[in-house]
Design a protein that fits this description.
Blueprint lengths: L12 H4 L4 H14 L7 E3 H14 L20 H19 L7 E5 L6 E5 L1 H14 L6 H13 L7 H35 L4 H12 L2 H10 L5 H13 L3 H15 L3 H53 L1 H18 L8 H4 L37 H15 L5 H12 L4 E3 L8 H12 L6 E12 L2 E10 L1
Antiparallel strand pairs: 1-3, 2-3, 4-6, 5-6
Helix pairs in contact: 2-3, 2-5, 3-4, 6-7, 6-10, 7-11, 7-12, 8-12, 10-12, 11-12
Length: 474
């Protein structure tokens, strides 16, 4: 259905008025803010009128010329008349926004008190929220999308409607993450374009901190470090593929058909598309988008530094531009034979002949090589067999690989002892060497006669996240 069949014919007219669009947009925001602490979008007309009148008074707005059958001189005789004029003007604005042509508000009579109430229409609420986001965009929390997807798929059994509560919710979060990351990439590009047009070195340096410490940098950093999707992606993709299991998919199709009111074939196609699109984004498109953002950030930093150097060098070269200008003036003065007519105290200003293009700082002296003036000798010291053996032993100790396969096999046998199975919590992890021994033993586990199974969850040690696993003898 066409959107213009759902909204009044003049819905956007107040925003199209060149002289008053700011006033109407502000009034809509004032009205929307008044409902902030109410339980519904219904309020007494007088409260709305007073809020708009205060806005008009604080901003010294005395006339809104496109309101029908209303005119008011900007000069008011006294304070009482001014207050009355603002209340009248606020009432006129409410009537305009409540008209059938605009439809931002609705006016109704309360059946109990017979007072008049103002109701924000559904379209008026969405328009107010859109204008607020355009004026002050919300900062997206990228990691929340990942957490929501992971937590939802990790607790499928607790939901009654697996389509609405699980698949549709996961698909919505994946789409939201994709949209916000693409917006981030576009935002970085606009910053680069804005930086290139900085006119002075001062204005660039004033904004550099804002550029480098922007929210998009923080969000990107959080998403690529501790809250990286790679920590959760394996589990997420595994659980998404579990949704394709016959019994689970049948339940999904039934719930989808009921929710979307479509046929069995359409419901099955819808479920397949949601799973496929979510898997494709998390397993492929996400990495391409992040790589694009990283590239743009690198370009952005290079442009910032390059632009700073260019502007700095440009301003440092003002002295050279002045000298060049004076030289041109001096040459012109010689051609016109007026050089000798200027006062003696000014002649030094036009002396460019001596060291015109070379100064002492630009001269590089060749470095003289050092001459060996006398031979030097050093006595030789002989060492015995004991010293040779001790030195060899020290070298062998330094070259010894404490993480070799045979040593890791012995290490595993000591850890497992008489037990049949151990897990990550059985390994000592008090320092970095012990952590590396655990990882090395896991690498050589199969060759050492053990079966290793990867389990859900992670342990954090030495500022690292290690996937949980268990080992048992073959």
């Amino acid at each position: 259905m066409n959107i213009f069949n759902l909204i009044p014919i003049g819905f956007f007219n107040p925003l199209a008025s060149g002289s008053n669009n700011r006033i109407y947009a502000d009034c809509l925001q004032v009205i929307y803010d008044e409902y902030d602490r109410e339980i519904t979008f219904r309020m007494e007309r007088d409260r709305i009128r007073d809020a708009i009148a205060i806005y008009l008074m604080e901003n010294h707005i005395d006339v809104v010329s496109d309101i029908d059958d209303y005119s008011l001189n900007q000069k008011v005789p006294d304070e009482k008349a001014a207050s009355s004029s603002y209340l009248d003007l606020a009432s006129q604005i409410i009537r305009k926004l409540s008209s059938d042509e605009v439809g931002w508000l609705e006016e109704e009579i309360d059946d109990a008190s017979f007072g008049r109430n103002i109701i924000m229409t559904e379209q008026g609420i969405m328009l107010a929220e859109l204008l607020a986001r355009l004026e002050k965009p919300e900062t997206a929390e990228f990691s929340s999308y990942i957490y929501n997807i992971y937590n939802t798929l990790s607790n499928i059994e607790q939901y009654d409607d697996i389509y609405v509560d699980v698949l549709k919710n996961v698909y919505k979060n994946a789409k939201g993450l994709s949209k916000d990351l693409k917006t981030l990439a576009t935002f970085i590009k606009k910053i680069i374009e804005r930086m290139i047009h900085e006119e002075t070195f001062e204005s660039l340096t004033e904004n550099l901190l804002d550029y480098f410490n922007g929210d998009f940098i923080k969000e990107y950093s959080r998403l690529t470090k501790r809250q990286n999707i790679r920590t959760y992606r394996r589990v997420i993709l595994h659980r998404l593929n579990d949704l394709r299991i016959e019994k689970t998919k049948e339940n999904l199709v039934i719930c989808c058909k009921k929710e979307e009111k479509i046929s069995d074939d359409k419901a099955e196609e819808c479920v397949d598309d949601m799973i496929d699109n979510t898997v494709r984004f998390l397993d492929g498109d996400y990495d391409r988008i992040m790589s694009n953002i990283k590239h743009k950030i690198n370009v952005y930093l290079q442009v910032a530094v390059g632009r700073a150097r260019f502007i700095r060098n440009k301003e440092k070269n003002i002295r050279g531009d002045i000298e060049k200008t004076l030289k041109i003036l001096g040459d012109e003065m010689k051609e016109l034979d007026i050089h000798d007519s200027i006062p003696d105290e000014m002649k030094s200003l036009f002396a460019f002949d001596d060291n015109q293009f070379i100064d002492l700082s630009s001269i590089s002296y060749p470095r003289r090589s050092q001459i060996i003036r006398e031979n030097s000798t050093q006595d030789l010291v002989e060492i015995d067999e004991e010293d040779i053996e001790r030195t060899r032993s020290e070298f062998e100790k330094e070259l010894e690989d404490i993480y070799a396969k045979d040593k890791m096999s012995e290490y595993l046998n000591n850890i497992i002892g008489e037990r049949l199975k151990i897990d990550t919590m059985d390994f000592p992890l008090e320092n970095k060497v012990q952590l590396l021994k655990m990882l090395s033993s896991a690498v050589y586990a199969e060759e050492s006669g053990y079966i290793i199974d990867v389990e859900d969850g992670y342990i954090e040690t030495d500022q690292m996240l290690i996937r949980k696993f268990s080992m048992k003898r073959k």
